[in-house]
Design brief:
The complex is a heterodimer of chains A (985) and B (477). With 985 residues, chain A is α+β, with helices and mostly antiparallel strands. Chain A folds into six domains: 2-119, no CATH class; 146-204 and 716-801, no CATH class; 258-361 and 639-712, no CATH class; 366-407 and 613-634, no CATH class; 413-586, Sandwich (Jelly Rolls); 916-984, no CATH class. In chain A, strands 2, 4, 5, 7, 10, 11 and 13 form a seven-stranded antiparallel β-sheet that branches. A five-stranded antiparallel β-sheet of chain A has the order 3-6-12-8-9, with no helix packed on it. In chain A, strand 15 (647-648) and strand 16 (651-652) form a beta hairpin. The two termini of chain A are 53 Å apart. Chain B is α/β, with parallel strands linked by helices and 477 residues long. Chain B has a single domain (53-227, 284-475), classed as Alkaline Phosphatase, subunit A (3-Layer(aba) Sandwich), CATH 3.40.720. Chain B has helices spanning 10-19, 24-33, 77-82, 147-156, 166-174, 237-256, 262-285, 292-297, 306-320, 345-369, 435-445, and strands at 57-63, 110-113, 118-121, 134-140, 184-187, 213-214, 325-330, 376-382, 385-391, 395-399, 403-409, 416-418, 420-421, 428-430, 455-457, 460-462. Chain B has an eight-stranded mixed β-sheet. The radius of gyration of chain B is 23 Å and the shape is globular. The chains are: A alpha+beta (985), B alpha/beta (477). Chains A and B meet through helix 14, helix 15, helix 29, helix 30 and helix 31 of A and helix 4, helix 6 and helix 7 of B.
Chain lengths: 985, 477
Amino acid sequence: MKCWSFVLLVLLLPSTICADDFFTSKIEPLFRERCFECHSHEYSIEAGLALDSRSGWENGGDSGTALVPGDPESSLLIKKVRWGDSDHQMPPDKKLPAAEIELLEEWVKRGAPDPRKMSSQKSDALDWWSLKPLKPVVIPASDIHPIDAFIHEKLNANDLKPTAIADRRTLIRRLYLDLHGLLPTPEEVNAFVADSDPQAWEKLIDKMLESPHYGERWARHWLDVIHYADSHGCEHDVKRPNAWRFRDYVIARLNADVSWERFVREQLAVDVFYPNEPQLIPALGFIASGPLELSRASTAPVTFDYLDRDDIVTQTMAAFASTTANCARCHTHKFDPITQEDYYSLQAVFAGVGKGDIEYDINAQVLERRLEMESLLTAAASLDSEVLLQSKYDEIVNQWTHDWEITQATPVQWNPLEADVFLASGGATLTKQDDGSIFASGTIADQEQYTFTSEVRLIRFTAIRLDVLRDDRHPEGGPGRAANGNLHLSEVDFHWFPDGEKTPVKLTIAHASADFDQEGWTSSRAIDGDLKTGWAIYPEVNKSHFIVFEFSEPIDTTQEGRLAITLKQLYPPKHVIGRFRVSATDAEGTSTRILPENIQIALQKPEDSRSQADRTLIAAMALKKHARQTLSELPEKAVVYGVSSSWSHAKKLPQPMEPKVVHLLRRGDIDKPIREVSPGTISAISGLPGRFELSNSNQESLRRAALADWLVHRENPLTWRSIVNRVWQYHFRHGICDTPNDFGRMGGEPTHPELLDWLAIWFRDQGQGSLKELHRLILTSDTWKQASILESVSDRCLEVDRDNRLLWRMNRFRLDADSFRDSTLRISGRLDLTVGGEGIEQFVKTAGPQATPVLDYTQFDWNSKTAHRRSIYRVVWRGIPDPFMEALDFPDLALLTPKRNFSVSALQSLTLYNNNFVLHASGWIADRVKSEVPAEQQVERAVQLCWQREPTRTELKSFEAYSTTHGLRALCRVLLNSNEYLFID
Amino acid sequence: MIEMQHGIDRRNFLGNIGGGLCGIAMAHMLARDGVVSASSSDPALKGGLHHVPKVKRIIQLFMTGGASPMDTFDYKPELERLHGQKLGPTEKPEGFTAMPGPLMKSPFKFKQYGECGRWVSDVFPHKAKWVDEMTFLMAMVSKTNVHGPGTYMMNSGFLLPGFPCMGAWISYALGNLTDNLPTFVVLPDAKGLPYNQRGPFSSGFLPAVHQGTVINATSNTAIPDLFADEQFEFATDSANREGLALLNEVNQSHAEQRINDSRLDARIRSYELAAKMQLSAPEAFDISNESQSTQQAYGLGQNETDDFGRRCLLARRLIERDTRFVQIWSGPQGATGNWDNHGSIPNELPPIARSVDQPIAALIGDLKSRGLFEDTLLIWTTEFGRTPFAQGGEGRDHNGGSFVTWFAGAGVKPGIAHGQSDEWGYKAAEGTTYCYDFHATILHLLGIDHKRLTFRQNGIDRRLTDVHGHVIHEILD
């Protein structure tokens, strides 16, 4: 089509048409076809040049004036389209056909006639309901519930009438599903029906909002919106065993009714806003909730970065602001005022974090303690007297000094060990000396390992001492065999072989100390598990030295056995031990520990003659021990799948990264970066700047905090409209705006804009962001309490508002997958209402060909211990969904799901009729009924449980007949498949 | 539209749930555009959505892992000349798993076949006999060299998860041809699911009814939950049958009190359809009815070909009984037993090629002789190609630069090839074909204009072809 019109254009001779027509018929289509993608307000304004208005080319772009009317040779545009040299090539992909270049030359030669006016598109773009500021709205009537006032006004205007309030059975069923995702029991229904308290409804709402099951129900909505799952999805669909902490966080925060502002801040930057509440760190699971492409992370890292952030940006802006920022990835948003630069600025917000397992302290006290102890360790290492000599530590230091003095009063008895086996695996020859020590001679291997076994003639032992002895036969007198007399003890292992048992016990070393440590080669390095580090003694050669290893538990030798010691001397080469002796002690506590010489000297001075330096040394020693001890006793950190600057490409980094550079990409192509962008957001909200001014833009957390600030700003109309609209939708099944993730021009427009704004302001101000207050407000309106069943539907209703968008009645709804499963379990009497904890796997898992396992849902044991927990606690495998839940429209969690689908199909009905879960549940319900009532009441009871009403006489008759022939279980199966069970009026 | 409440005409809606003449897309779009009233489709379109279709049903064969073009259908004499020379990229390109090695010729012999003279290597002796029936796309291109995204791309047109696959779009657009069987059936390799697990068969944001029904061809219970498991003794045949009748009764009386809610009626009808499927499906899935010679032709009973052959035969039975779209996968995800031959082309490619070669040849012959090629399209494809450079000696790495796809059957010109790769087979040289063009062409054959098949999701009118796609008219018959 385009080709043809172009051919026609070329055929027309330029001189036969007037100047403006020449532009309109030839040049503008050419611009549109060839240039607008990068040079128009509709798509993108690259290099600052817009060609969609006369003023665009008149003003020129970053490289200056685009053209000189009348002079093609001086016109940059002409030079570019001719592909003059490599810097001047437009369009960049492919040179224009010669005929089109000639047309452009001709146009410029003629003086560049261009009848177009300034593009008006930009200014119109802001004229859209969702971007307009929230302005106070007057409630249309003051004597009724405000929501009813707005709804009735619109109904009146359309000559429609609301429907009467539904009966109490219908109301309580509706309320239970709405707030808890569970059907009520017949007893709960009867109690409410019979309740004469005028406040019965309000009290019921309050009771249900206070229940922990409220949070379980409403957390599911949020998890749908943000595509939370317990596995990565994509090619390597690996489980995230710690993701559930975020799920529990959402449940807990909804139950606590935290304000919306705070909820937003926590999920984007809890680390910045609430640094003293470490237990809230799981909130960062929000940013990590989407899929992760592991294979792309390793083989296509640049693409990975952009696409992973794209998902985060899409989710964040859709969830909090109902905005489709991602539409601007390849070009400036076609319909909404979101530029490509805005979009990449949002990417920059998240450029400093990656997804991974994040550790956090379980409460503030633990965190505070940990931070204090870590700072003490730092102070001890740097001998910071200001910290160490604080009076609050006096007691600890004095106690330590006191203990030291006591241990020094009784010198440690070291009992030399008699080696029965000693060998060198590197090639040295070991010989026992007269004094019992072992001497090494012969080959000096690059790497050496001595193994030494011995009995221990003590009832128990607490520490082992290794003496390395000087000897004139070694270079520089040893004690090592390196040319300089040094040695390196890379690692040491102790194993205890009890007599008569085959497997040895590996002994845990709690501490190592030596009489002298070479700088960087300290005694602790011999027990750090790292083969490249170790203990050494240079330059103190030509002297004997010793190192003491304390065990974490005393070793009981009443059952006789043998101690095996391995001395690894691996790195650097040839630093092997020349002569050594091993001894053991049963001395208690830390009496065996060797203190550095300078501290020993300080300790030996009388207390009042110690200098500040002495006291600092002593305090450093005492407090280091105290801090290490305290840290080891603190409760372990918990782990959540979240984000931090210490993760990138699904790998943990040795240290936090600087934020990555984000470029504006031409057409979203990673090979076509245009320029670097700074962190920001969309610029279209008046009064809220779209680029962030950060005190330190390299501190990535400030970027996230700035986005949170922007979102929760009271003047940000998107955020407040977004959340009240979502809540409205979950109560009524349609939002006031029915595209809850998109308030842009491609989305819907609100049916009741005044009500939406009134709710947004009410929620923000009076409601103080409390979702529970918002629920109360909505649930107490007559609008919500209307019946959905009408005796007859007037033609007027169908004609004016067939879809019931104006709410002339309540919307009937089908149980969603989770509600169906949970309600069925509740009816069966088996629902396990345990709150929180690790996810439950309702499948049989076996190893797959690669990282992704094979899940078999059909083999799951429905009588197992975890089978009856609420659905929200299921492990949701992103790429291998549960076919049963899926049949009932449980969403594909590769996607953001602001609203569940409703589908009907033969396959769905087959699932409901024949799936193991439903058939087991049919049996459980029948068993329950049989255990509760005599045979003649069982059918009635089954109907009460499933439908929360009495059966009619006709129903009872046919149910009895069926049940008599096929059994109560078969009848329960029919009831669970009935529309009366699946739909709530 | 998604939550159909009160607004959709009942007859039309019932049609959509699997019983009727047209798909949801058709009804929805026609109604929305006001072109015709929502309850009628234009008989002149003969089942197409926008124009008269040439194809009504499709079997797609998908080679998991990235089938090597230069070792199968894309003969490259230049590789023989330059074998062993290091002429490739000097840095690891995005998406390659390793640094490219020297150029590597194919270890297999190529010969020309048929009247068209297509070159085929000796890994496909059976398929080679049918080249005059095939229409080749010799320069297919992917935007990625990574399996997961590549598999998504060839199925849904997007690199990211969450988008409906082609089968789902077709089901959404055209609805079904029969009530007796699922509309879109997926037959994964017995050894396991492809990359992205069930992602490539997802209906994404389209209603779940359009997703692929995954069928285990070796299981007794092919369609999941078609019947109750034997452990439930109360679910006897008569309890099932009379239970459905009782259910119908209670649902009818429930619906009578709740006028004007098409969803209730739709659910009533869905149980009627379920009962029909229970009657028809077991026969369709029972390949023991096929003659011994047919089973042999497909390679049943031979170790290497049994699984793929069984699924090809099953696909033919389903297509014959009006399932609209059947997708057969060769190879599971993972490092072995598929087309991802990083380690050794001479050792790894022949066995996987043998497992499909005879069955596919048999399928072509069978479809043709039964007249099914009149309105059935057979598609052979993969997620991307492989490098002309060696990996680790004699393997080949991933390469989105060029790969081969072929069609056979209705609506396409047999015995021709469109496009060609460069002299090494590294990149497409002419007639470059993206998944968008591939999908646009298939939709076109089905009577659908790919630009007009849309679904609004979170503010975007989504298409199978995103914002791209050109029908490849050169190959259309």
